[in-house]
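// run 5 | inverse folding | seed 20
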């Protein structure tokens, strides 16, 4: 059984899917007005961990990740410029071109990180009609009011509004310093914004209330319902979505249908720099390309993220990324070492250890996606097997490789697991060469590289990882 931390319950609870074999998953995706930074990508890696853990439990996962290409204003409140229009001005492109450009770059990043693609990537601009229909229904049911700049959801009409995020609305009211405009309460939110007078926006549509564009919080309601038929199983987001974006999604769907939108709500924590949230505005903004340019593999970042629990912030530093790189290299070196051992031999003690390691790995992941603990089990295993190899014990080579093939279904670190058609004696020279390089004994490393070359093998060094191929 899988247990997950459900945000509204503020507790780890058993997960029960609506359909016994299938899980429907909706993830709030990026606003595509600029490059995604590695903080945004952490959210994608969290979704991937969730998906792969559900698959490890034999669920079939059907997933949707939305693309926000309109309506997300510079402030998560309802003020400021539309991020897409801002991006268009910055680069002298149309809003559509900006959306296409950054969607493509983001999807390339996901691929480099071995993130399983979602089944659908709906865009907010493709669901304008559905958003207008939702707002019309909310209006008919008496949940809205109109101000000089838009149509607003009246949160006072929805008594459960504060429940999901355990909000203290009275304190919010007292502390309201933001320019509320004509809003009646700070928690009320825009469903439809009018295009500013005297200004033609690139993205605007006609509606029963006037020309304008939808507020940010309606798109996910209609896209999730259209593609997954709410209530569905799991909805995810970053933890910043709890008090505003998700609270507002829930209010709209429940006010409209009387039903909850999703059964489980999961939120990943931030990637920080010097403990401050990585964000574009703070200027502490690192992209996946920056990491690659510094000689790291995207999968070093993948491992760095997996080594932290999704409900704790990761304070990013280049040192921590270097550590993750070395940790990944330790796993690769271990597998290369095992690959040199021939033939496969029985060892009941190690075979039991293999079974226990796999069970503990699964148990940790099924316990609220405890990936750091799952990885710790792998390192205990590596330590144990390395001692056995050192002691000259029989090694169940095939079982070890099989174990790592299974672990890779979640880790996906591109470990060298395909059965090498490289002879063991060649692998031995290759490993000695890697060891020499790690010890900065470059003369010895070059000597062994030459030796391999004479024997008809080439070493390729890429992203700090070495592979050997037959020439
Ligand atoms: P945005 O493009 O700002 O709408 O963010 C897209 C997603 O990335 C949201 O789910 C945010 O919660 C998440 N996010 C933004 N900044 C960070 C960060 N520094 N660390 C982790 N997640 C973040
Ligand atoms: Zn959303």
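// decoded
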């Amino acid at each position: 059984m899988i247990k997950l931390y459900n945000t509204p319950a503020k507790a780890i609870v058993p997960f029960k899917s609506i359909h016994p074999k299938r899980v429907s998953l909706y993830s709030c995706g990026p606003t595509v007005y600029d490059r995604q930074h590695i903080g945004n990508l952490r959210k994608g890696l969290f979704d991937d961990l969730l998906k792969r853990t559900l698959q490890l439990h034999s669920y079939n996962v059907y997933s949707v990740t939305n693309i926000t290409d309109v309506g997300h204003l510079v402030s998560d409140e309802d003020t400021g410029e539309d991020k897409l229009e801002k991006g268009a001005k910055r680069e002298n492109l149309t809003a559509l071109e900006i959306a296409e450009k950054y969607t493509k770059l983001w999807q390339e990043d996901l691929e480099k990180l071995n993130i399983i693609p979602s089944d659908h990537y709906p865009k907010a601009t493709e669901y304008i009609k559905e958003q207008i229909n939702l707002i019309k229904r909310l209006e008919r049911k008496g949940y809205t009011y109109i101000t000089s700049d838009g149509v607003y959801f009246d949160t006072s009409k929805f008594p459960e509004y504060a429940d999901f995020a355990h909000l203290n609305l009275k304190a919010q009211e007292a502390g309201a310093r933001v320019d509320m405009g004509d809003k009646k309460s700070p928690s009320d939110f825009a469903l439809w914004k009018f295009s500013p007078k005297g200004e033609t926006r690139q993205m605007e549509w006609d509606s029963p209330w006037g020309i304008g564009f939808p507020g940010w919080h309606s798109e996910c309601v209609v896209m999730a319902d259209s593609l997954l038929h709410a209530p569905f199983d799991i909805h995810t987001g970053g933890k910043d979505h709890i008090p505003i974006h998700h609270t507002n999604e829930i209010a709209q769907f429940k006010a409209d249908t009387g039903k909850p939108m999703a059964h489980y709500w999961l939120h990943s924590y931030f990637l920080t720099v010097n403990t401050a949230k990585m964000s574009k505005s703070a200027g502490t903004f690192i992209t996946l390309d920056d990491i690659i340019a510094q000689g790291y593999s995207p999968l070093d970042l993948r491992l760095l993220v997996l080594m932290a629990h999704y409900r704790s912030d990761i304070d990013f530093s280049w040192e921590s990324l270097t550590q993750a790189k070395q940790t990944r290299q330790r796993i690769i070196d271990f597998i290369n070492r095992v690959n040199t051992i021939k033939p496969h031999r029985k060892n009941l003690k190690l075979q039991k250890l293999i079974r226990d390691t796999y069970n503990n790995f699964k148990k940790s992941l099924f316990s609220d996606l405890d990936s750091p603990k799952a990885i710790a089990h792998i390192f205990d295993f590596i330590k144990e097997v390395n001692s056995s190899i050192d002691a000259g014990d029989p090694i169940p080579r095939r079982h070890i490789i099989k174990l790592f093939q299974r672990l890779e279904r979640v880790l996906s670190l591109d470990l060298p697991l395909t059965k090498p058609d490289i002879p063991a004696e060649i692998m031995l020279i290759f490993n000695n060469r890697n060891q020499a390089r790690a010890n900065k004994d470059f003369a010895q490393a070059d000597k062994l590289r030459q030796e391999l070359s004479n024997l008809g093998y080439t070493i390729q060094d890429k992203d700090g990882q070495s592979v050997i191929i037959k020439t």
